Amino acid sequence: MRAMARALPSLLLRLLLTSTPGTLGTNPGLVARITDKGLEYVAREGSVVLQKELLRITLPDFTGDFKIKPFGRGHFEFHSLSIHSCELRGSALTPLPGQGLSLTISDSFIRVQGEWKVRKAFVKLHGSFDVQVKGITISVNLVLGREPSGRPTVTAPGCSSHIQDVEVDISGDLGWLLNLFHNQIESKFRRVLESKICKMLQNSVTSDLQPYLQTLPVKTEIDSFAGIDYSLMEPPRATAQMLDVMFKGEIFNRDHYSPVSFLAPVMSLPEQYSRMVYFAISDYVFNTASMVYHEAGFLNFSITDDMVPPGSNIRLTTKSFRPFVPRLARLYPNMNLELQGAMASAPFLNFSPGNLSLTPLMEIEAFVLLPSSAKEPVFQLGVATNMSAMLTFNTSKITGFLKPGKIQVELKESKVGVFNVELLEALLNYYILNTLYPKVNEKLAEGFPLPLLKDIRLYDPVLEIHKDFLFLGTNLQYVRA
């Protein structure tokens, strides 16, 4: 039964419960929902694994005394018991509201083989036996919890097992003698097996599954300076048809963590059950990512004259600015310029039904590169643009792509007089389209990982965009090593 604790609960829990410390009282950034269809698949796959593992189990020996006229009293022993074959015909993993999951195995069959010994006074006899254990039913409750650290917990406080029928076939010298009290033997077999099945399963949950969950990674790396916090906000929530797991889902800077100034929105998940698993990913996840990359200066840039494409209508020199900024050319003759750009604030991704958009605002400052290698600020620009976003799924990650919009440039401050920014607008539009967008899209293509076990593959996805969150439905496949 040790395999059962690994095969079924682990497959489900490791799919959902990769976690790090979180804070109660706030909304989750990500909710993972496994439906009854997903639980059926997990139970089915787990029974396949269990059947193989059961063949490796050695059952305990058991002994007893007998008294049959005219032979009198004697002692028997059954040893070297091993499961020769098994068939798990029915297994189910269902939500246990308010607690976790209920694991049930029914209508199952095990065939046990072993050796027997009989001792009567100084006479010792031995032989082999074959036991067919039919109509096995096992029921165990898996209570799911959360540690203060945000890690998952699992216990199995309640378990019951029942064997409908045990048939013992005894061979060897005087095997017919043991057959005279086969009812006693079968009854003892039933009691021993029923007791051992639950004890082994509960011990395995305590000694194998729970310690294993405690060693799961608490943070998932995205790249060299960003990670994602998948802490549990509360114990997994079981209802009649599904199991929901609430994750913090916050992107953070790996070098230094600073709390974000906004909360995740409340997500009202659609009642859909056509897929095995659903992920509701709020705008909180993407916008905390935007803050991390903004604070790290990922979107900052600079443009110098040697970066301007050949044939451009304007060069980044004071000479080329003479026709429309004459004062600049007079004050700084024959000098190069440099434009330094940064986002005014972290650009937030806006979710509306069927649509994703951003309205980033950039600030660009122009500097004259003096002969002394110093930089003299001369004017500031404000750049606004609207862009749409596409999100896709590649079996384990959410990836993205930005579609550019037209930019608008305004002169915000100038030390060299007011001038027309149309030429600069064309230059900035070229740079942003050909340099900044590809850089951002390359990062978005790397994506961020969903909390998945390495042996789990997701397929047949459907993506919906709702107010404040992305709703991903998918089926899962367990890939055996």
Low-pLDDT residue spans: 1-25
* Largest beta-sheet characterization: 6 strands, antiparallel
Oligomeric state of shown chains: single chain
- Give the termini separation: 21 Å
How many helices does DSSP assign?
A: 7
Q: Quote the beta fraction.
A: 35-45%
Number of strands: 25
Fraction of residues in H or I helices = 10-25%
What would the principal axes of the Cα set say about the shape?
A: rod-shaped
Radius of gyration: 34 Å
Overall pLDDT metric? 83
Structural classification: alpha+beta
Read across the widest sheet, the strand sequence of neighbours is 10-11-1-13-25-24
Describe the protein's architecture and organization.
This protein is of the alpha+beta class. It has helices spanning 2-16, 36-54, 175-179, 182-214, 283-295, 326-331, 422-446; strands spanning 30-35, 62-68, 72-87, 90-96, 100-120, 123-146, 152-170, 219-221, 226-229, 237-238, 242-247, 250-253, 277-282, 301-304, 337-343, 350-352, 355-358, 361-369, 375-385, 387-393, 397-403, 407-414, 448-449, 456-466, 469-478. It has a six-stranded antiparallel β-sheet with strand order 10-11-1-13-25-24. A hairpin with a 3-residue loop joins strand 10 (237-238) and strand 11 (242-247). Helix 1 (2-16) packs antiparallel against helix 2 and helix 1 (2-16) packs parallel to helix 4. The longest helix is centred in the middle third of the chain and has 33 residues, at 182-214. The radius of gyration is 34 Å and the shape is rod-shaped. The model is unreliable at 1-25 (pLDDT under 50).
